[in-house]
Design a protein that fits this description.
Order of helices and strands: EHEEEHEEHHHH
Strand content: 15-25%
Helix content: 40-55%
Largest sheet: 4 strands, mixed
Strand order of the largest sheet: 1-4-3-2
Number of helices: 6
Shape: globular
Mean pLDDT: 93
Radius of gyration: 15 Å
Number of strands: 6
Low-confidence stretches: none
């Protein structure tokens, strides 16, 4: 988000990794994990890991990445469309967990990314159709298009 939206602050870093790769980064202290996610810290920084075994995360990692300079190195980052896809994919779970402030932030992020970079939400949403339930897809469509 910091790469694409001016004024957007975040207090964590999100990674897409295989579970095997995460084991090779002992500097990240893992506090919680499930089949798709792990949460931990690196020093005082919160780290959220999305496992590449999830098909949506894998597709973003494989085809929606671009290199950006960070400090003295090039770092692979999600493209704008990749970020929109990840945030759309997360919304149903955030609502189901009643994490409404987080969901509102994700909706605002999606809006800012789409407006600032001309992302067409329809095609991104269509590519998620097989990855979320029919009811979730319909709710995402309503969020994106208000109908």
């Amino acid at each position: 988000m910091l790469r694409y939206v001016d004024g957007r602050n975040t207090d964590d870093i999100d990674l897409v990794l295989s579970a095997e790769s995460l084991v090779r980064v002992p500097e990240i202290a893992i506090a919680d994990t499930n089949a798709n996610f792990a949460a931990g810290t690196f020093r005082s920084l919160r780290v959220d890991v999305r496992f590449a075994s999830n098909p949506v995360f894998r597709r973003v990692m494989d085809s929606r990445m671009v290199m950006h300079p960070f400090a003295e190195m090039e770092v692979p980052c999600a493209t704008v469309e990749g970020l929109v896809k990840l945030k759309l994919y997360a919304l149903p779970a955030l609502y189901e967990q009643r994490r409404l402030q987080h969901a509102a932030l994700y909706e605002a992020d999606i809006t800012m990314l789409a407006q600032a970079h001309g992302v067409k939400l329809g095609p991104v949403l269509e590519r998620l159709q097989g990855d979320v339930g029919a009811g979730q897809f319909e709710e995402l469509r309503k969020i994106c298009f208000g109908d």
